[in-house]
Amino acid sequence: MSGTQALPSHRWRPSGRKARAILWQGLALAVLAGGGAWLAINTMSNLEERRIGSGFGFLERPASIPIAETLIAYAPGDANLHAVAVGLLNTLLVTVLGIVLATVLGTVVGVARLSRNWPLARVTGLYIELARNVPITVHLLLWYALLQGLPAARSAISLGGTAFLSNRGLVLPAVGMPGGWLPLLAAVGVAAGLAFALHRLAARRQRWSGRRPLVWPWAAGLLLGLPACALAVQGAWPTVTLPQLKGFNFAGGTTISPELTALTLGLVVYFAAFIAEIVRGGILAVSPGQWEAGVALGLDRRRILRLVVIPQALRLIIPATTNQYLNLTKSSSLAIIIGYPDLVTVINSIITDTGQAIECIGLIMAAFLAVSVSISLLMNWFNSRMKLVER
Amino acid sequence: MTKTLVLPAPPPTSLGQGMLVRLRAACFDSAAGTVTTVMVAVLVAALGAWLADWAVLRAVWSTPPGDAALCRAPGAGACWAVVAEKHRFLLFATYPYEEQWRPALACIVLVVLCVASGFRRSWTRWLAARWLMVGWLAGLTTIAVLMWGGVLGLPHVSQERWGGLPVTLLLAVFGIAIAFPLGVLLALGRRAEDLPVIRWLCVGYIELIRGVPLVSMLFMASFLLPLFLPSGLTVDKLVRALVAFSMYASAYLAEVVRGGLQSVPRGQHEAAMALGLGYWRATVLVILPQALRRVIPPLVNTFISLFKDTSLVLVIGVFDLLNAGKAAIVDPVWQAFGFEMFLAVSAIFFVFCWSMSTYSRRLEDGFGNPRGR
To answer: Which residues contact B36 (CB under 8 A, 6 or more apart)?
Structure first.
């Protein structure tokens, strides 16, 4: 009510206003505290009756549950906490995969939806309508059923002879590096850093002289040359092992389980449709005058899009997309309906195992709140960098 | 992505030529455009041909009851027979077979009521609004009588046997109906600047619920509600799902309503105060009608996503439409045809969601036009 403070408004307000405010708030607190105490007393007596202890001690006790897919080593008998960590990592894997792929697909579809090409615009429009009017749960079960209906490994669908799709999942060639990946990764990192510094330098030169020095041949040379040097020094090449059919299953490749494939596919197909609509809306919201001004400056269509339209559209796109990222993160918990061992699935098994429902559900909520808050903070930082600098 | 600026097509001189010009602009405006058109056409043709072959030409539409041999024959396409055989279970689950006309009728009554509430006239004219309220009261009584029975010679059917489409629709309608007033109160509480305690309680509730997945809320209702209540007091699974779903929906609806409250100019509030109205009368008579009307399109969009979210109740074993579909293919005979079954489920969800989103788009167009108000 900061705007009304200039008015002598408090004078004609009923005199008991402040007292009433305190009364109402006190009442609300009392009701809340009373309700909370009632629930707590009930819970205590129920827990006692069922002989369930409380506290997080169970996290250190050995877990009996098997987990099919793990990013870190795990075996039944490890601590429950370890099982929770495995689940959390799986959730993070699906979330990151989903966010990256849905953003790429959504951006492409959103731009294609705006294409002047009628067939392309209609086909992408059809995809958006079909994907977003069906619940994500149905998407997951549909994709999972489709993957399970695929032929057995013996008659797997070959994708160019290098990857195979069967009811055992997607088998990709395994890529290995004798002597470890570290030197190569370091070289790529250094090259990327140098290329970025060159880009900044060129931008500064452009502001100073009005002319932009040619950068990309140097950047390309760095990005290709440095890793090549690293490989030459190490004296080894990455090895690619193609999957081979041995008996009833494949050997030698990296297998992505049907559960992970279905979960990723479902999340990407569903959320890409929403992101596409956001991208489309963002681009449409930039006024046509901006396009015309770009044309008047002699910029071509690609430059107008990159330098004029997209920076302005991003202001609308980023906050809405952040919401979709948060939704995607929360929806990854639906892994439980197709049996992918994410955080929720693992903790659900721990609940049936130990009976510590209160602590376990608190753990799920805390983990998701932490992930959501991290994504929000990251996107807010990105948004503040992209914000229009006003005069 | 051409480098030349495309000028608008010249005005057509005749109908035929105009269509040609339009076709050219829409499909073959440049080399890249032509390539795109050809690629899309090839893709659509290939996919369409495969789909027509699988879903129509080679499809198996019916089989002898309880026998899927025809579907398993080599070269057989989509097995629609599974949907044909299980459609009653999909729609009504374990509701007694001879009585399934009752949930069917209840669904029709509910849909008719929702459609009737969608006409703008029913909330802008007092008389129509009054009739609508009478209609809802009569309709809900009818639905209760139909679903539970026990009166008028209808055999009693207990809640545990409800399932399928009526459960999905009832969860959505009742969940939203309970959540909406809660959401309005939460939104008002969040904006009550001279009541800091209430304000922070509301903010905490809304942000906490929006930060956690619905699955965890449902788990809470399923695992924790029995712990929270005095021993001996048990709550039906459907009611537990409804409690969790309403709590979840109220936080999302509160945020939409808050947007509407923010858009009402402060002068309206001051004018109401000047007329001598107290807080509640000013809010109910002056502020809320304006605020809610402004957020009708985003409200409908939230309803759509909440409707889709009802399908999550399958994680705690409530027999909604999706769970009925999932249970229908547990039968080992039909186990291999889950894809066809879930396609049928998605078709039902699609019809509901797509009609609501089309309606929401029409509302938005209407609200953009000042004469539409």
So the answer is: A115, A117, A119, A120
Interface of A with B in 202-261 (CB under 8 A): none
Confirm or reject contact between B194 and chain A (CB < 8 A).
Answer: yes
Whether residues A119 and B37 touch (CB distance < 8 A) is answered with yes
pLDDT along chain A (391 residues), means of 10: 47 64 86 88 80 74 79 79 88 93 93 85 91 93 88 78 81 78 85 89 85 82 85 78 76 82 93 93 88 90 84 85 90 91 90 84 90 84 71 47
For B308, the closest of A118, A135, A357 (CB atoms) is: A135
Shortest Cα distance, chain B CAs vs residue A208, angstroms: 28
- Is A368 within 8 Å of B40 when comparing Cβ atoms? no
ipTM higher than threshold 0.90: no
Q: Between chains, do A142 and B343 touch, taking CB under 8 Å as contact?
A: yes
What was the pLDDT predicted at B2? 45
Domain residue extents for chain A:
80-149+256-386, 178-237
User: pLDDT digits over A66-119, tens only?
Assistant: 887 877 777 777 788 888 888 999 999 999 999 999 999 999 999 888 888 888
What's the mean pLDDT in B76-96? Answer: 80
Size of the A and B interface in Cβ pairs below 8 Å: 170
Smallest CA–CA distance, residue A205 to chain B, in Å, is: 27
Q: Contact, A169 vs A263, CB < 8 A?
A: no
Residues 6+ apart with CB under 8 A from B61: B80, B81, B84
d(CA A118, nearest CA chain B) in Å: 5
Would you state the pLDDT for residue A92? 92
What was the pLDDT predicted at B7?
A: 55
* Residue in chain A nearest B208 by alpha carbon: A369
Give the DSSP H or E segment for A157: strand A157-159
Residue of A122, A304, A365, A373 to mutate when probing chain B, most B C-beta within 10 A: A365
CATH of domain A80-149+256-386: 1.10.3720.10
Which residue on chain B is closest to A367 by alpha carbon?
B212
Residues of chain A contacting residue B201, judged by C-beta atoms under 8 Å apart? 28, 32
